[in-house]
Amino acid sequence: MSLILNIVQVVQLLAALGMIGLILVQHGKGADMGAAFGSGSSGSLFGASGGANFLSRTTGVLAAVFFVCTLGLAYFGNLRPASSGSVLEGAAAAPVTTEASGAVPAPAVVPASGAAQIPTK
User: Fold this and answer.
1) Position 112 in a domain
2) What is the distance between the alpha carbons of residues 42 and 28, in angstroms, rounded to a whole number?
3) CA 33, CA 39: separation in Å to the nearest integer?
4) What is the sign, positive or negative, of the torsion defined by CA atoms of 50, 55, 56, 57?
5) pTM of the model
6) Pick from 25, 30, 38, 95: CA 20 to 30 A from residue 16's CA?
7) pLDDT of 53
8) Alpha carbons 56 and 31: distance in angstroms, whole number
9) How large is the C-alpha radius of gyration of the chain?
10) Is 70 exceeded by the pLDDT of residue 1?
11) Residue 76 sits in which domain range?
12) Which of 58-62, 65-69, 85-89 has the lowest mean pLDDT?
């Protein structure tokens, strides 16, 4: 199970880094107006508008992979064995020793209300 979680985490990390790179390479919607009038990067690698479809589709696929990996990690992260209880239940069951003799200290008395009680003699 741990091998599957490690693989899913690596895939999620690679998808995140790929999305970051592709988003930084893409140009905004306002850049099309400049390319239409002869300025800008009309001689780019994918042409004036050919790269927008490829880059945006690849970004969408990587976003879907990232989303599926996130859901998978959340699902597997919340799976617990039926026999194990809460962390607090395990801490409450274990006695706390403070002295070298091994004696268990008496529990402190906590007042029921929020107001401080003054001890009377």
Assistant:
1) no
2) 14
3) 9
4) positive
5) 0.53
6) 30
7) 86
8) 15
9) 30
10) yes
11) 8-21+45-80
12) 85-89
Query: What average pLDDT score do residues 52-70 get?
Result: 92
Give the pLDDT confidence score for residue 31 in this predicted structure.
62
28 part of a folded domain: no
Closest listed residue to residue 32, CA positions, set 45, 5, 50, 19? 50
Residue with tokens 């003699």: 121
Provide the token pair at 106. 């008496």
Structure tokens at 89: 């239940």
Is position 116 within any domain? no
The total of structural domains in the chain comes to 1
Judge whether residue 109 has pLDDT over 70.
no
Give the amino acid at 45. Answer: L
Number of residues that make up the chain: 121
The sign of the dihedral angle between the CA atoms of 26, 30, 31, 32 is positive
Read off the pLDDT of each residue in 69-92 and give the average, rounded to a whole number.
Answer: 76
State both tokens at 2.
């741990």
| Rama region for 47: left / alpha / beta (φ>0; ψ in -120 to 50; rest) | left
List Cα–Cα distances, 11 to 1, 16, 20, 25, in angstroms.
16, 9, 14, 21
Q: Decide if pLDDT at 50 tops 60.
A: no
